[in-house]
């Protein structure tokens, strides 16, 4: 094995309404909209990216808002929970914030850590854990000060249709280390300080199906294009069928479906989201790849306008 990923690069999910999504991820969770673009394969649909102040790898959650999409079902073959990490002293802040904003949550524990588990308005399953690791956020929005803000991903819970095979892929292909098993989950860890803790169900579970409120894929980090090419060879040599390298403007990507049914992507850290916007103005206008610029007016008419706005409760 040549490469070992340092952790999650991004997570991409299906939702329905861009304004509802913006109000939750920016308004409630305090994340920054770092890129407003389109689904390159379906330009009538937004592709929205939320993360820390710069959209650093390990902080980015992305969405395809399909207004009329069916409701998905979270289950095997998907990311079950996307885990966010906050500073050690911020756990009570988030309990109080969710209570104030009438966001239902449950407190639970796993591997000796406390988690707040909740759902976004479409039913996407999220959780918050407090840890020391990970650079603090520099972004402040609404009622979320930088010192309490989400730092990025803590990791994820993967729901596998073939847990032993998924575990083998995480260790022998992606380079994570298996560090424990408890309460029906096996835990794996990478070397990074964000997006580095992955839990996988041990027993079989019911299959999910895609739609609003489900994760489309989880992306793992490659440090550059040279390593990315080696990743493709490594995945192919492990018996999977990776796609050709795809230019996603802000990173290059390959995709493959692991044996447990979860769609994996491997994405490069560079070039990042400042390639076509100043860092100070990320996410402020619709950015299109050059091959769509000639259709900008038509595309903008197909997209539902939305705003990044502070919630009334935070004013």
From TrEMBL:
Listed Pfam families: Glyoxalase (PF00903)
Matching Gene3D superfamilies: 2,3-Dihydroxybiphenyl 1,2-Dioxygenase, domain 1
Domain VOC: 7-131, 152-269
Highest rank taxon of the organism: Bacteria
InterPro entries: Extradiol_RC_dioxygenase (IPR052537), Glyas_Bleomycin-R_OHBP_Dase (IPR029068), Glyas_Fos-R_dOase_dom (IPR004360), VOC_core (IPR037523)
Name the UniProt record assigns to this protein: Glyoxalase family protein
């Amino acid at each position: 094995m040549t490469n070992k990923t340092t952790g999650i690069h991004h997570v991409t999910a299906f939702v329905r309404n861009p304004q509802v999504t913006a109000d939750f991820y920016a308004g409630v969770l305090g994340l920054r909209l770092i890129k407003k673009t389109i689904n390159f394969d379906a330009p009538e649909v937004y592709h929205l990216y939320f993360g820390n102040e710069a959209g650093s790898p390990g902080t980015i959650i992305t969405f395809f808002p399909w207004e009329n999409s069916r409701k998905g079902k979270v289950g095997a073959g998907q990311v079950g929970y996307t885990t966010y990490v906050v500073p050690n002293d911020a756990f009570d802040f988030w309990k109080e914030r969710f209570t104030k904003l009438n966001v239902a949550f449950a407190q639970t524990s796993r591997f000796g850590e406390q988690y707040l588990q909740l759902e976004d308005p479409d039913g996407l399953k999220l959780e918050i854990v407090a840890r020391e690791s990970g650079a603090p956020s520099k972004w402040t929005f609404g009622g979320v000060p930088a010192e309490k803000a989400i730092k990025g991903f803590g990791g994820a819970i993967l729901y596998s249709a073939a847990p032993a095979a998924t575990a083998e892929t995480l260790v022998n292909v992606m380079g994570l280390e298996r560090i424990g098993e408890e309460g029906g989950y096996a835990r794996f860890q990478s070397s990074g300080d964000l997006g580095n803790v992955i839990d996988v169900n041990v027993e079989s579970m019911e299959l999910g199906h895609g739609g609003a409120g489900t994760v489309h894929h989880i992306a793992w980090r490659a440090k550059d294009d040279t390593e990315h090419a080696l990743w493709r060879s490594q995945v192919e040599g492990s018996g999977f069928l990776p796609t050709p390298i795809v230019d996603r403007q802000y990173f290059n990507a390959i995709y493959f479906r692991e044996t447990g049914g979860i769609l994996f992507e491997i994405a490069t850290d560079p070039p990042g989201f400042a390639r076509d916007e100043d860092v100070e103005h990320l996410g402020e206008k619709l950015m299109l790849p050059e091959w769509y610029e000639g259709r900008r007016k038509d595309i903008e008419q197909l997209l539902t306008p939305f705003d990044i706005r502070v919630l009334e409760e935070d004013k």
